[in-house]
Amino acid sequence: MEVSDKDLVSRRGFMKTAAGAGALVAAPMIVPSSVLGQQAGAVPPSDRVVVGGIGLGMRGASDLKDLLTMKSAQFVAICDVKSQRREEIKTVVDQAYGNHDCAMYEDQFELLAREDIDAVLIATGDRWHALLAIIAAQHGKDVYCEKPGAATIGQALAVIETFHEYGRIYQGGSQRHDTENMIFALELARTGKLGKLQAVHAQVCGPPERPVVPIRGWLPPEPEPVKQVLDWDRWLGPAPWRPYNSIYVTRGEGGWYNFWDFYGGGILEWGPHSGDLCQAAANADDTNAVEYDPEVKEAGPVVINCRYANGVKLVMRDSGWLPTVGGCCARFEGDAGWVESGSSGVVELSPNLLAKFKAAIPVKASQSTVMHLQNWLDCVKSRQQPHCNVDATMNNIITNHAAYISWQVRRKLTWDPATKSFVNDDEANRMRSRAMREPWHI
To answer: How many CA atoms lie within 13 A of 326 on its CB side?
Structure first.
């Protein structure tokens, strides 16, 4: 079923669709937060934020490891389609707390129906991110969701509307936003220490094993595991039905994010990591780039030249980074100098700025997500907006999707942030959304 942009951003359309699928056990539930006892007020400052997790694989387990060190949170439940992973997460949590209290669920609705859970950590595959965030908000839960937060532009718009309407707190999992090296780099860009900001550069595409445009084909079918071991239908969720293959359910090179069916892809999977930082540096958290001009070529580096309405250029590229800064790189350039940093924690400055700020450069930063999670937990209690709130996160996602669409159609596109549409380009506008597999709808 093709879902229109109007339906994607309309709660009325969501409710109408969900009502039609109401007889199906797997259909999304829409429950007002007041029914579940989850009011939109703050968690009392003296209390811990009670957290449940959905889909905690490699990335989610890393988040959980940091969360378990934090006195302001209490993790109480795990939901996952893999029985082995549920058991592994329960063991880690119970050992951390010295009890046997972590509950396990196969069905996300059972976890979300718990009135004692204030917030959820979502780290499933990309196909589930937006849908689960929306359902969680409708159940009165605040959300920390790993990136990318939406598989299409339409989904991103629906997430924004839902979190505004239900008054829930959303933090996108762009943890580098709160690392010391990036805090320092952003400070230089946003306070004029680079002079007038000219351009920001975001790394798109990860290792060469991850294709820029995902694979459209299928892998050969393999015997499907029994549901008690792996619920394949629930793993697929809103993605198209495909026969099981064990490679799909891995996160290593060649895993699910290399396939179009599962919403993977180099630009979409990697771009939001540093796109978030560039957007913040350009003071563009509430908007999107307005021009997207791909450097069309048969092979070689990926480069998409973009521009914000304020004149700042956004260069999305996969190569040419300084060797010391690591991955997930970002570079900010002003008329008085530049700064570049990445996952290594090393900060590189133009020679004139190095002489001026050398003593202030932070010591090599770790990749811990503690500060980012703490910002989220603090905001769950205070009801203030976190650093990577729903608007900032989804506007970053929209910019990445628009860039990806320009790469696919191989031409320059103009984007109107007010209407959330491409100007005079029907083909590109059709690519803003994709159908979901029954019974899932937004």
So the answer is: 17
